[in-house]
Structures are given as C-alpha cells and as structure tokens.
C-alpha cells in the first residue's frame, strides 16, 4: 500500500498548558511557516492549512501562508483544509492558487469545503440558510474556470454573470480540487457525481463507521460512469507522535480537551472531553492517532486498509506541540 502522509493545521491559538496564555496570532502564523519548511525537509508528502474567522484560530487566509511556504520549500504539496467556498469569490480562489502554482509548480491543491464554523457567513454578508446552495454553485463555477481559460457563466443566485472573460494566470495543468466533508451523505453523493476526490474528516467515534459512506461514494461514481482511479479518497484525523508512546498520549490530552470543550459550548451535539473518553479515542478503535511511530503507523495502515482508502491521510496536530515538533 502506497500511503501519502500529510500534516494539517488550523493555526489554533488556545492557551498553552505551561503558561495558561494564548499565543499571539502573528507568532502562530510564523510558527506555521517554520513547521511547513521542516515538514518539507522531512519528506512529508503534504501540508494543509484551514480557514477560520475567529479569535481561537490565527489563519483566516491560508493561501497567504501557503504562498509564503511555496517560496521556501522544494517538494511538499501545499493545500487548503479547507477553502470555505460559500463565503468567498471562486474567481479569486482560482487566481490565488494559480498564482501560487507559479511559485511551486504542480505542488498546489485546493480542498474545498462548506466550512464547519459559521462566523464567516455574517462577516461576509451571506445567509446561513443558503449554506448548501452557496457551496454547490460556487464549486461548479470554480470547476469550470479550472478547466477553461475563457469563462462564460450565466448569472446565478449567488454568482455574477461572466461573459467570455479570461481568468488568469493559467496553470499548465488543472489545479487538483477535492471536497472535504464531515460525513454528510449528500456531500458524498454530490462529490461522487462530480467525479471529484473526497476527504473525510474522521475526528470522533470509530473510523470504521465511515465505511458505508465510502462504499456509497464508489457506488455512485461507478453508476454515473466516473473514473474511480482519478478519485482518491483521503482522511483527515487528529494526532501526535513522540518516541515515548505514553508521553505522546499525555501531551496531546490538554490541547485536545481545550479544543473539544470549546466547540462543545457552541454545538449541542458535542460534549466536553473526559480523560477516559480521550483514552478511548486514542485507543485501537478510536479516531485520534497518538503514540510512538510504530503504534501510529500500524493504526493508520489498519484504518486505511479496512476503509479502503486509496490516497492519503492528514494528521491534525495542535498548537501545544509546536516546539516539540521543531
């Protein structure tokens, strides 16, 4: 099995366990750039950065950080995680990532998503009730300009009419675009019908619960005649490595609990995390990949084989581990 291993980060700024104070946004962004440069030197396959518009995450413009990293790296693939299409102009998305591709040819990718947090809708003047429609329409527009230099686009509900206008700069090959989802049946079906790669955010429960969705994705793709060999399936999960397995488990609890507890105050379907729940999550059947290299590698292989994942897994590391990583 040929597995691509990536690292992802949202640039979180939760308080440090050692000081109880949050790191500044500017320092967190500089730290991220250091991490990407190091990951490139260590032959990590990819680094993906998420987009948020709230105080506890420093990154609101992942493409800026990725572009900075593009100029300082040689081989690592650089991706958003995700580009929140409902609240951004898809023409600007293409232009930004095409520009980045000129700096790092063939190493730039777009992971498109609807956004799991909702702050951007009010911030940029969009109605949350149009969550799905916004994403679908803007994704279709992005896909069209990714294939065609001259864009003809009828006025949509959320996008302007474009009459035979060129979109520049152009890339030598279309930018790889995948769709990220937390496990929605609708997103799975739609992505399969479009023939796009998919990335599942597997961050809780038993990862094998995603198996029916993956089977559905493949079944729908085959039904509409799409080529599954061009539709890799990837996973995004939380995790941390240390040479000492028990130390890795201990170190990762505090930042994980902080993040989960914060989200649980905003989402009724989430609960605060106890240490017992955490141990279950990092255990053999949990969705968090923590431990020494052998433990984590074996768990990754097990999950990917049982789910039938064909492409890659992104491990989301948390702020507390920045200095340990470097």
UniProtKB/TrEMBL annotation:
SUPFAM superfamilies: Bacterial luciferase-like
Keywords: Monooxygenase, Oxidoreductase
Residues in Luciferase-like domain copies: 18-308
Domain of life: Bacteria
Keyword Transcription: no
MF term (GO), any: monooxygenase activity
Leader sequence residues: none
Database matches in InterPro entries: Bact_Lucif_Oxidored (IPR050766), Luciferase-like_dom (IPR011251), Luciferase-like_sf (IPR036661)
Pfam families: Bac_luciferase (PF00296)
Keyword Ligase: no
PANTHER family: BLR5498 PROTEIN, LUCIFERASE-LIKE MONOOXYGENASE
Record-given protein name: Oxidoreductase, LLM family
Organism of origin: Lactobacillus paragasseri JV-V03
């Amino acid at each position: 099995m040929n597995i691509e291993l990536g690292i992802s980060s949202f640039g979180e700024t939760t308080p440090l366990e050692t000081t109880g104070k949050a790191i500044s946004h500017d320092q967190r962004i500089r730290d991220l750039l250091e991490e990407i440069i190091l990951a490139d030197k260590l032959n990590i396959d990819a680094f993906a950065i998420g987009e948020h518009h709230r105080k506890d995450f420093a990154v609101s413009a992942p493409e800026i950080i990725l572009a900075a990293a593009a100029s300082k790296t040689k081989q690592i693939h650089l991706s958003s995680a995700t580009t929140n299409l409902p609240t951004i102009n898809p023409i600007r998305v293409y232009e930004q990532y095409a520009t980045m591709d000129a700096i790092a040819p063939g190493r730039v990718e777009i992971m498109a998503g609807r956004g799991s947090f909702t702050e951007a809708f009010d911030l940029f003047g969009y109605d949350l009730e149009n969550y799905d429609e916004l994403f679908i329409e803007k994704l279709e527009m992005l896909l069209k300009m990714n294939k065609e230099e001259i864009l003809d686009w009828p006025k949509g509900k959320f996008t302007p009419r474009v009459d035979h206008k060129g979109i520049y700069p152009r890339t030598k090959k279309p930018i790889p675009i995948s769709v990220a989802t937390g496990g929605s049946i609708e997103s799975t079906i739609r992505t399969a019908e479009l023939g796009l790669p998919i990335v599942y955010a597997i961050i809780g429960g038993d990862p094998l619960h995603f198996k029916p969705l993956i089977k559905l994705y493949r079944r729908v793709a085959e039904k509409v005649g799409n080529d599954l060999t061009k539709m890799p399936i990837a996973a995004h999960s939380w995790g941390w490595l240390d040479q000492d397995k028990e130390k890795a488990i201990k170190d990762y609890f505090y930042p994980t609990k902080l993040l989960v507890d914060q989200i649980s105050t905003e989402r009724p379907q989430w609960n605060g995390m106890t240490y017992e729940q955490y141990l279950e999550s990092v255990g053999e059947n949990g969705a968090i990949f923590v431990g020494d290299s052998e433990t984590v590698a074996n768990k990754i292989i097990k999950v990917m084989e049982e789910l039938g994942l064909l492409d890659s897994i992104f491990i989301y590391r948390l702020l507390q581990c920045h200095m340990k990583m470097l």
